[in-house]
């Protein structure tokens, strides 16, 4: 869990340092704007914007029951953030597995990607898809007609 917060905390600390330097030079407006930008980056790269992660085995079990895709992700991954943001509210309908917190999830991703931990890897009906288009993932959530 600590590893997931390293990048966001570094962004907050760097933003605070830059803002303090700008304030000392007499630019409080610029300091505030840059601090807000750093805080926004920290928020986007934090685990807070992702739905609660579950273990890979539990996600696969739930997916077998309800047919919803499983998303393997990790904090700090810009492609994971893009997927999460573009999915919007429908992201909560997926089963999310943080591969940094779940060794079985990391192993599943390596098995699907020739030994690489490439994320996001989305598993739909037992078939892995590496870095799929968010629109395609959203379509997988739609009931078949």
From TrEMBL:
<feature type="domain" description="Glutaredoxin">
    <location>
        <begin position="70"/>
        <end position="127"/>
    </location>
</feature>
<feature type="signal peptide">
    <location>
        <begin position="1"/>
        <end position="19"/>
    </location>
</feature>
<keyword id="KW-0472">Membrane</keyword>
<dbReference type="InterPro" id="IPR036249">
    <property type="entry name" value="Thioredoxin-like_sf"/>
</dbReference>
<feature type="transmembrane region" description="Helical">
    <location>
        <begin position="29"/>
        <end position="50"/>
    </location>
</feature>
<dbReference type="Pfam" id="PF00462">
    <property type="entry name" value="Glutaredoxin"/>
</dbReference>
<dbReference type="InterPro" id="IPR002109">
    <property type="entry name" value="Glutaredoxin"/>
</dbReference>
<keyword id="KW-0812">Transmembrane</keyword>
<keyword id="KW-1133">Transmembrane helix</keyword>
<keyword id="KW-0732">Signal</keyword>
<protein>
    <recommendedName>
        <fullName>Glutaredoxin domain-containing protein</fullName>
    </recommendedName>
</protein>
């Amino acid at each position: 869990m600590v590893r997931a917060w390293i990048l966001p905390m570094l962004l907050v600390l760097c933003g605070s340092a830059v803002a303090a330097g700008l304030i000392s030079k007499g630019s409080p407006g610029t300091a505030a704007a840059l601090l807000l930008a750093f805080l926004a980056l920290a928020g986007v790269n934090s685990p807070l914007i992702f739905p609660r992660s579950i273990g890979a085995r539990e996600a696969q079990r739930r997916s077998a029951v309800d047919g919803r895709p499983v998303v393997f992700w990790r904090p700090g991954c810009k492609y994971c953030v893009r997927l999460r943001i573009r999915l919007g509210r429908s992201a909560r309908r997926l089963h999310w597995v943080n591969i940094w917190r779940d060794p079985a999830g990391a192993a599943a991703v390596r098995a699907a990607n020739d030994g690489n931990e490439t994320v996001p890897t989305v598993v739909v009906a037992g078939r892995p898809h590496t870095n799929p288009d968010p629109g395609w993932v959203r379509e997988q959530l739609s009931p078949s007609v």
